[in-house]
């Protein structure tokens, strides 16, 4: 026993030397007793100072300088302050109480759990944006900020991806409350820009962490009174809601039908009493809900399309469309895709096409169709079937790449069967949520929806016809012109006259009936030479999707559902760009230019393309086949102009005159001004 005890003491002594400390007590109790004795023998006070023992698990030690410190073996921590059992017990009770009550402490959190991405994705973010005048102005002034916010809200992209964009960072920081202290372990450093340091997470960010957090949702017997809404415009004047009551009523009827009767009564009251009624109803929950629809116009448009799509596909699913369980299997040859589609898709039973699922395969390419081959089929097939080369469709104008049914399609053999195939392809693409690589004219989309065409729809398709009809509408009809309800057109090489209505040759056009004349002329212009083809295409479309399901969409919406957005292939654009005047692909100004284009949203790229070429459409073949005044003409950038000048466009030649700017920031600003206000500058 003595030998083992000596060994243990030597081992303990060795460990003490290594730690450079001397153990002042073998146990907590002995340490406490010795300190108590020392205190009583050396103290001059008449009272006996009894030092309580250390709590269980604690040990008192001294370092080489004779300073006493305390070790907590349970939490593996050290401290210079002597702990007491009462204090430890109180701390444990506080911890347990905090865990049970889930109370919020007065000190800020160690690191914020509510980051900028969650803030931007808040359901009430649009309302907050409209309440923050500075943020709203910054949002409306920057298309880039709009694009970034959309990507974060709709696609869930991280904010870190865009922290190098100063406009976006400045926009988000406009919501931060800089009157509040930073969260615990956060520090702000520097100015212009201010960097925020999170010491706990060991990271830095340019975005202020003091963004407003969502209110805690507590259950209560009754709802809290609504915040008093200040119905003011940007100049601080009372909003003239009386002039928008009809618009609000229509939106409420569509989106809040259960509240519509009550809100209509309040809107009528506003129409009669004006500002008095507004003041009386300032805190009315129903009216605030209705007005908020106007505040979130962009969000409503997007959510409206999403709701329509969800309703559209839910209705199709309930009706058994594309549900299966049977499958229709198609196998196509890439080299003979158009003829294979003509033979196989037209030969399939329409009812089976409507109800079955698709399974697509290409020759010599084995694989399962989980959507990829189907998407590729409609992409490739649409590029051929709707291509003007085959004669069924034509470009709507020499400088436009939207297509429409060609009046000369009757020259194609079996043109009606081909048109029926086109209708089936459009229906199948809609049914199976596959995009096509084609954009049609507005009149074509109206034909799909069976909506009447107006003269405004022909403004881009036939500008000359549009101007003629508008002149008739806006000016008195001169009887001496002898205009009647007759139109001249060419048939089989001969010009013939056709009456727009029975006995039209005997009915003169006057101010009283000119609107009817314009309407009949528009109908004739749209249907000229393509009535039979249009009926065949609609027949094929309705064999797949019943017309009643399609009427839920507007013209713009059906274009998005069929063709998506007009995404620009930046690599193809740059590869098919020519340079003049000393510029070349690696020139520093050209590098700045393409870097700026890469930072743009797709919408802004389309505006740039519109500015330079006169159209935002892209040909089927890509940028290599951009059209000029007399045939294909590639996008060209030429060095021209002083550093103070704006870029200049020559739309006939697809050429951008770009001065050699000294910095990328000047190039960015000048290019932005030219694109946004280019109509007022030199565009030749």
From TrEMBL:
<dbReference type="GO" id="GO:0061630">
    <property type="term" value="F:ubiquitin protein ligase activity"/>
</dbReference>
<keyword id="KW-0833">Ubl conjugation pathway</keyword>
<dbReference type="Pfam" id="PF18436">
    <property type="entry name" value="HECW1_helix"/>
</dbReference>
<feature type="active site" description="Glycyl thioester intermediate">
    <location>
        <position position="652"/>
    </location>
</feature>
<feature type="compositionally biased region" description="Low complexity">
    <location>
        <begin position="23"/>
        <end position="45"/>
    </location>
</feature>
<dbReference type="Pfam" id="PF00632">
    <property type="entry name" value="HECT"/>
</dbReference>
<dbReference type="Pfam" id="PF00397">
    <property type="entry name" value="WW"/>
</dbReference>
<protein>
    <recommendedName>
        <fullName>HECT-type E3 ubiquitin transferase</fullName>
        <ecNumber>2.3.2.26</ecNumber>
    </recommendedName>
</protein>
<dbReference type="GO" id="GO:0006511">
    <property type="term" value="P:ubiquitin-dependent protein catabolic process"/>
</dbReference>
<feature type="domain" description="HECT">
    <location>
        <begin position="349"/>
        <end position="684"/>
    </location>
</feature>
<dbReference type="GO" id="GO:0048814">
    <property type="term" value="P:regulation of dendrite morphogenesis"/>
</dbReference>
<feature type="domain" description="WW">
    <location>
        <begin position="180"/>
        <end position="211"/>
    </location>
</feature>
<dbReference type="InterPro" id="IPR000569">
    <property type="entry name" value="HECT_dom"/>
</dbReference>
<feature type="region of interest" description="Disordered">
    <location>
        <begin position="1"/>
        <end position="48"/>
    </location>
</feature>
<keyword id="KW-0677">Repeat</keyword>
<dbReference type="InterPro" id="IPR040524">
    <property type="entry name" value="HECW1_helix"/>
</dbReference>
<comment type="pathway">
    <text>Protein modification; protein ubiquitination.</text>
</comment>
<dbReference type="GO" id="GO:0005737">
    <property type="term" value="C:cytoplasm"/>
</dbReference>
<dbReference type="InterPro" id="IPR050409">
    <property type="entry name" value="E3_ubiq-protein_ligase"/>
</dbReference>
<dbReference type="GO" id="GO:0016567">
    <property type="term" value="P:protein ubiquitination"/>
</dbReference>
<dbReference type="InterPro" id="IPR024928">
    <property type="entry name" value="E3_ub_ligase_SMURF1"/>
</dbReference>
<dbReference type="InterPro" id="IPR035983">
    <property type="entry name" value="Hect_E3_ubiquitin_ligase"/>
</dbReference>
<keyword id="KW-0808">Transferase</keyword>
<feature type="region of interest" description="Disordered">
    <location>
        <begin position="215"/>
        <end position="235"/>
    </location>
</feature>
<dbReference type="InterPro" id="IPR036020">
    <property type="entry name" value="WW_dom_sf"/>
</dbReference>
<feature type="domain" description="WW">
    <location>
        <begin position="52"/>
        <end position="85"/>
    </location>
</feature>
<dbReference type="InterPro" id="IPR001202">
    <property type="entry name" value="WW_dom"/>
</dbReference>
């Amino acid at each position: 026993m003595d030998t083992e005890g000596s060994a243990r003491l030597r081992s303990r002594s060795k460990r003490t030397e290594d730690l450079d400390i001397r153990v002042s007590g073998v146990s907590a109790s002995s340490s406490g007793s010795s300190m108590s004795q020392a205190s009583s023998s050396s103290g001059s006070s008449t009272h006996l100072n009894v030092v309580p023992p250390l709590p269980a698990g604690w040990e008192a030690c001294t370092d080489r300088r004779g300073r006493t410190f305390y070790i907590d073996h349970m939490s593996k921590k050290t401290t210079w302050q002597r702990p007491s059992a009462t204090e430890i017990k109180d701390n444990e009770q506080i911890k347990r109480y905090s865990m049970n009550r889930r109370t919020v402490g007065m000190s800020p959190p160690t690191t914020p759990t509510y980051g900028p991405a969650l803030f931007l994705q808040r359901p009430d973010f649009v309302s907050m944006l409209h309440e923050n005048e500075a943020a709203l102005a910054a949002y409306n002034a920057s298309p880039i900020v709009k694009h970034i916010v959309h990507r974060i809200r709709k696609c869930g992209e991280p904010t870190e991806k865009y922290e190098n964009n100063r406009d976006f960072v400045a926009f988000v920081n406009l919501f931060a409350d800089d009157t509040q202290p930073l969260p615990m372990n956060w520090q702000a450093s520097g100015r212009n820009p201010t960097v925020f340091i999170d010491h706990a997470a060991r990271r830095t960010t340019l975005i202020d962490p003091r963004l407003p957090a969502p209110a805690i949702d507590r259950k209560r017997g009754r709802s809290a009174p609504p915040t008093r809404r200040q119905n003011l415009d940007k100049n601080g004047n009372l909003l003239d809601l009386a002039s928008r009551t009809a618009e609000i009523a229509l939106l409420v009827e569509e989106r809040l039908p259960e509240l519509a009767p009550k809100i209509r009564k309040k809107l009528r009251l506003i129409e009669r009493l004006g500002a008095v009624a507004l003041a009386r109803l300032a805190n009315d929950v129903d009216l605030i809900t209705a007005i908020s629809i106007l505040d979130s116009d962009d969000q409503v448009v997007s959510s409206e399309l999403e709701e329509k799509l969800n309703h559209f596909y839910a209705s199709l699913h309930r009706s058994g469309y594309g549900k299966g369980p049977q499958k229709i299997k198609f196998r196509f040859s890439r080299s003979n895709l158009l003829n294979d589609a003509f033979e196989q898709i037209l030969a399939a039973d329409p009812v089976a096409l409507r109800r079955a699922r698709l399974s697509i395969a290409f020759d010599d390419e084995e694989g399962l169709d989980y959507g990829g081959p189907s998407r590729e089929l409609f992409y490739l097939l649409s590029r051929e079937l709707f291509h003007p080369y085959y004669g069924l469709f034509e470009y709507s104008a020499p400088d436009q790449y939207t297509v429409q049914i060609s009046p000369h399609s009757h020259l194609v053999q079996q043109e009606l069967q081909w048109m029926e195939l086109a209708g089936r392809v459009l229906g199948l693409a809609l049914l199976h949520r596959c995009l096509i690589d084609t954009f049609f004219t507005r009149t074509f989309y109206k034909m799909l929806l069976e909506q009447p065409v107006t003269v405004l729809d022909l403004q881009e398709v036939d500008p000359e016809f549009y101007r003629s009809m508008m002149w008739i509408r806006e000016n008195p009809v001169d009887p001496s012109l002898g205009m009647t309800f007759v139109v001249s057109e060419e048939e089989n090489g001969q010009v013939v006259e056709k009456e727009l209505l029975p006995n039209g040759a005997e009915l003169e056009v006057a101010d009283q009936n000119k609107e009817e004349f314009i309407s009949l002329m528009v109908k004739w212009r749209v249907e000229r030479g393509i009535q039979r083809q249009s009926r065949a295409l609609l027949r094929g479309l309705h064999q797949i999707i019943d017309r009643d399901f399609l009427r839920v969409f507007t013209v713009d919406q059906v274009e998005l559902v069929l063709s998506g957005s007009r995404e620009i292939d930046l690599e193809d654009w740059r590869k098919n760009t020519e340079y003049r005047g000393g510029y070349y692909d690696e020139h520093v100004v050209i590098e700045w230019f393409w870097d700026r284009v890469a930072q743009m949203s797709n919408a802004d790229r389309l505006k740039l393309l519109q500015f330079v070429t006169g159209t935002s459409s892209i040909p089927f073949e890509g940028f290599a086949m951009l059209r000029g005044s007399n045939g294909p003409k590639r996008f060209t950038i030429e060095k021209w102009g002083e550093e103070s000048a704006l870029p200049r466009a020559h739309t006939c030649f697809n050429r951008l005159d770009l001065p050699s700017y000294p910095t990328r920031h000047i190039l960015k600003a000048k290019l932005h001004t030219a694109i946004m206000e280019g109509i007022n500058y030199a565009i030749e």
